[in-house]
Structures are given as structure tokens and as C-alpha cells.
Amino acid sequence: MKNNGNVIExxxxxxxxxxxxxxxxxxxxxLNGCWDYGPMGVELLNxxxxxxxxxxxxxxxxxxxxxxxLMHPKVWEASGHVDNFTDPMIDCKQCKAxxxxxxxxxxxxxxxxxxxxRALNENCNESELKSKIEKLLSENNEVNAFDIIIEDxxxxxxxxxxxxxxxxxxxxxxxxxxQFNLMFKTFIGPVEDSGSxxxxxxxxxxxIFVNFLNVQNSTRQxxxxxxxxxGKAFRNEINTKNFLFRTREFEQMEMQFxxxxxxxxxxxxxxxxxxxxWYTNLxxxxxNLRFQNHPENKLAHYxxxxxxxxxxxxFGWGEIEGIHNRTDFDLRRHEEFSGKSLKYFDxxxxxxxxxxxxxxxxxxxxxxxxxxxxxxxxxxxxxxxxIVLKLHKKIAPIKAxxxxxxxxxxxxxxxxxxxxxxxxxxxxxxxxxxxxxxxxRRQDEIGTPYAITIxxxxxxxxxxxxxxxDSMEQIRISSDSLSAFLHEKLST
Length: 492
Ligand code: GAP
Fold this sequence. Notes:
By secondary structure, the protein is an alpha+beta fold. The protein is built from 18 helices and 23 strands. It folds into 3 domains: 38-80 and 184-373, BirA Bifunctional Protein, domain 2; 86-180, Herpes Virus-1 (2-Layer Sandwich), CATH 3.30.40; 398-491, 3-Layer(aba) Sandwich (Rossmann fold), CATH 3.40.50.800.
């Protein structure tokens, strides 16, 4: 399905039809960059978060935390977000569309990029700039040179005069690029002045850093140890795009692992490996995942080493998680700005030290979209199309459906009894509406691994059929053994 250009549209359509994702405030025309998780979506999202939470906290060296979304404004000065959390933004003067300069390349095809670089090279008469462009062209092909040019402030200014607006097509109608801070501002308390400005957190990580010693003192953890947190984050993205991929409100699953400075490389490599395994253990094909290391000149202001785990979305490779060696940057900055010590007493060397931090920062919403994309498949069965979400059993929203073949002859009564027995053990779905074939298709579309059918034979010998989602094979088992059967199948 990956090569099918329409696959995102198909996933968006299935998401609405089956109750995974709805547009936020849809009846008012929607709110850009915000989405609501429907009955199936919230189950899938919760299962992803539960798998992540268990993988992090069912061990003795990681503690959990749930910090508040609103934090003291100094936090964001110390973290560097007030000064550095910006994207370069341009507007089209003609149609008023707004673009992130560094994403402009992604909106243009290769032909357009080559044409732009050539036009720039011809029209650029300032000799220093011209030689700069020629150098880029000799070292890179025209398409790569475009991306480098767009990141260079001086060159991108010139290039923008040569480019057509991707929305209305007008040439050279862009404003100067300016830096736009992505944090949402609001006011705390009744007075709306500069003294009461607070921000909606753009990442959950800072809540962990400022609580480092609270957690360490209360749990008596020794280095190395981690703190894990799941929560909402907000970024006023200039361009939201690709469904759940870049939104203004989203959820992160972040874990900060505090280590002795000399052990940073060992733990960075260790967490890279562990995090990649988490995705493959939940059914992602390794061919659709890769590490993308950040080159030294592109590292974030806090990072010594960084890599992204990328997923091969239908629109191309995209980051779903960042793994960073943040050194002691965050603790040092919070010490400086708060005037409070955040040092840890190392009993081995009898000295106070500032630990280094290895961060694993995953997007719950982006992982959700990656898992959905990975699972989406279309098959032909007996001349008819079958859409099936081949979700890993652990994250599937519904674990089993209960389907009485007909609504008479004692079948609904037996089905209800089975439902009663299973309801509090597994997330199940009771469906007695329509032809059974249609009911199977509905369950396939939401990724339910097992469908239990109650038929005439059940009324005679108390056996039911269990249909497996991917193979569509059916077996007959005693209704008494259903709970043990599901328990065994779902835990392996
Ligand atoms: N604490 C480090 C940090 O926040 P990041 O690379 O900016 O690093 C981490 O974000 C993860 O959060 C990303 O890999 C992505 O999965 C998710 N994320 C970031 N911005 C997002 C957005 N606008 N919409 C959805 N998910 C986003």
C-alpha cells in the first residue's frame, strides 16, 4: 500500500468512518492542526501509550511523572525556547498564504527546484553570492543545492524573489523571512499584562528536568536512572500538514535518562537500540524504519549527538521519535536561572555532579499515525475488496467481537452470556446488526483480531467459531474455553 499515493486519503476516510479520528470542532468548519480521537482512536492511542509506559516503568531504574502543562515562564527562558524555538516564516503578499521557509522545498517538485536554482544562478549578479551558488552546484546536484540555499539566509532571500508561490503561483511575491516563535502564549490570573504571560508547554521534557531532584530524593534512585512522562504538548506550527503528522496540539512520550557524564555514549547507543526494538516488537516492519543521524552542524542547541527514528510514510520518511544526548545543558541552565542546585551526590567519588541526560522523545500522535499506516491493507477476497487493519494484537482497539449469527433461536441469549463473561476481561464489541459477512468486514476495518460467532451448532454443543482477522481461518472451540483462549492468544 505504501506506493499508493492515495493511501493517506484512504486512512483519513477510514478514520472518520470507523471512529478513529474526527476533525476538531467539525460542525464549525474545523480547527486547523487539531484533531479529536473517536471511540476506536482513543482505544488505539491509549494502547500505544500503555505499551510505552509499561516498557519504560516496569523496570527498576525508571520512575513516572505527570507534570503540569503550565510552568513558570523562566523555565522557557532557561530551556532556550524563548530565544531559539522559532521557525523562519514567509507570507505570500498576493494570496496571504504562510510558509515555513525550510519546508518550501518539500512543497515543490524536483523540476521546479532545478529551475529555481538555475534562475537564481543566472540572475544573481553579486559576485560573492554567485560564486557561493556555483560552489554549491559543483558540490551537490541542483535539487540538493536548493535545500542548502533555502537554509542560507542571504541566498534564500534572493531565491524567494525567483520562486512562485506554491499556493497561488505568483512569482516573487514573498515577504522577507522572519523568525516566528512556536510557543502558544496565554495569561495566568485575571490581569492580562506582560507580568502574567505563561506558555502552553511545547515539550513535556522541561517538567522532568525541573523535578529531577524531587524524583531522585523521593525514590532514592541512583545514577543511571530515568524519568518517564506522557502528556500533551502545543506548538503553533506555521504549516500543519499530513493529517496527524504535524499538528498544533499533540501528545509526547518522553523519557529522560540521567547518567554519569562518562557513560553518555554507552547509554545513547543503548537507548537507540531499545527504542527501535519497541516499534518492531509492536509489528512495524524494520524496512519501514530507519535512523537519521543529525549532522554536527545541524544539532539542536542542547545536543551533543542526536538521531531521529523515521518511518516511511506514504508521503516520504518522517521523524516519529528523537533520541538526544542533551549533556548537562538542561540541569545547568535551570541551576543558573533558578539559583537552586540540581547536583547529584555521587557516593562513589564523594562529589556533587551534574548528570548528563539521554532523551528519548516519541510522539504518541505521530506513532499512532505510523501504526495506522503500517496496518492499513487492502486485499481481494472472493472478488471483493477487503480493507483490514493488521494492527498488532496488543494495540488493537477491540480484542474480540461477539456476533450471534441471527437474532433468534436462543443465539442472542448465549451471545449475551459470553459477553457478560468476557466484558470485564477484554475490550470486546457486541454486534448483532446486519449480515455476518458485513459484520466481519466492520471488525476487519477496525483491526479486531478475533470474531466469535454463535450459530445453530452452539445451541446444540456450546461450541463457537473463532475467526482470525489476518488469515480469516475459523476454528471451533468450546464457549467455556473462550476466556483462556483469548488470554493466551493476546499475550503471545
Ligand atoms: N524534548 C525534545 C523534543 O520535543 P522534538 O523532536 O521537537 O523533540 C519530539 O519532538 C517528538 O514529538 C517528534 O519526534 C514527534 O514525534 C513529536 N512532535 C513534534 N512536533 C510535533 C507536531 N507538531 N505534531 C505532532 N507530533 C510532533
